[in-house]
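**Paired protein data**
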Amino acid sequence: MYICVCHAVTEKDIKQAVRKGVSSISRLSELTMLGTQCGCCTEYANQVLHQCSDKS
């Protein structure tokens, strides 16, 4: 599922980032550009990030 349509960032991309040690939305944004265009995805991306972090 696409989380950030502007930069084509998927839930799978976020899960991979978490496996690589990403634990903040700002770091995720640096790596994927998520939330840097319209910003509509940031809140949901943060939820996904934390859900994935809790599982690892």
Notes: The two ends are 20 Å apart (CA to CA).
